[in-house]
Amino acid sequence: MYSKLQYISQGETIETQLYNIHQALDAGCNWVQMRFKNQTAQDTFTLAEAVKLLCEEYLATFIVNDDLHLAKRIAADGVHLGLTDTKIDEARAILGSTKIIGGTANTVEDIHNHVQNGCDYIGLGPFRFTATKEKLSPILGLSGYFDILQKMKKNKIEIPVYAIGGITLRDVNPLMETGIHGIAVSGIITESLEKKILIQQLNEKLYANVIV
Ligand SMILES: Cc1ncc(COP(=O)(O)OP(=O)(O)O)c(N)n1
Ligand SMILES: Cc1ncsc1CCOP(=O)(O)O
Ligand SMILES: [Mg+2]
């Protein structure tokens, strides 16, 4: 089963990114998406190599944001692709069947297309406004998740869905009640001064109904 908590990295420099990712891993995150925007190819590659080693040390899943070819080059566990990034079916043809491919969705039609094209998980959002990302798609709110997850059920569309965008601890229970698999968060973990406690609290809520 995919982890129910994804950490999306932040930081304007290689050093800040590595610090933030290391802190998140140390505090218990076991899924990292490296998101390093508007950087040179060399710096992104340098960071990715270091993050790969860190994730291996912590036995964490390592996903590269946006850059399919970088994900392939460094043999990351997978890639996350947005609606304007490389198409999911093209990425599948390049990465093969063993790598994880995540796709962004804002509607049930996006989810349906991604499933048809061989996507492994969905990042559905934004839940609410967030300053972490520019040019947000329409905000879904709780009712948006409820509607989309109901439509998925009705149409028998099965794929793990992660809620994303401005999520806080108190959003987790109501979001999980809509039928999502988990959450992808950046700000709350990066900014937390008590990361271990926060991640424990998030995981308690995320895994509350999982029978082991
Ligand atoms: C898990 C997850 N879901 C959605 C996104 C957003 O991807 P995208 O729309 O391509 O935006 P950027 O992150 O590239 O700015 C994501 N990264 N992860
Ligand atoms: C990458 C991304 N895509 C939609 S919202 C978002 C940012 C998530 O970060 P945060 O948890 O800080 O809102
Ligand atoms: Mg993208």
From TrEMBL:
Domain of life of the source: Bacteria
Residues engaged in binding 2-[(2R,5Z)-2-carboxy-4-methylthiazol-5(2H)-ylidene]ethyl phosphate: T130, A131, T132, G166
Pathway membership: Cofactor biosynthesis; thiamine diphosphate biosynthesis; thiamine phosphate from 4-amino-2-methyl-5-diphosphomethylpyrimidine and 4-methyl-5-(2-phosphoethyl)-thiazole: step 1/1
Keyword Magnesium carried by entry: yes
Cofactor note: Binds 1 Mg(2+) ion per subunit.
Cofactor(s), by name: Mg(2+)
Catalytic activity: 4-methyl-5-(2-phosphooxyethyl)-thiazole + 4-amino-2-methyl-5-(diphosphooxymethyl)pyrimidine + H(+) = thiamine phosphate + diphosphate; 2-(2-carboxy-4-methylthiazol-5-yl)ethyl phosphate + 4-amino-2-methyl-5-(diphosphooxymethyl)pyrimidine + 2 H(+) = thiamine phosphate + CO2 + diphosphate; 2-[(2R,5Z)-2-carboxy-4-methylthiazol-5(2H)-ylidene]ethyl phosphate + 4-amino-2-methyl-5-(diphosphooxymethyl)pyrimidine + 2 H(+) = thiamine phosphate + CO2 + diphosphate
Coiled coil: none
UniProt keyword annotation of tRNA processing present: no
Positions of 4-amino-2-methyl-5-(diphosphooxymethyl)pyrimidine binding: Q33, M34, R35, F36, K37, N65, T104, K133
Any Pfam family hit: TMP-TENI
Domain Thiamine phosphate synthase/TenI: 15-186
The protein's Enzyme Commission number: 2.5.1.3
Family: Belongs to the thiamine-phosphate synthase family.
Name of this chain's protein: Thiamine-phosphate synthase
Source species: Flavobacterium quisquiliarum
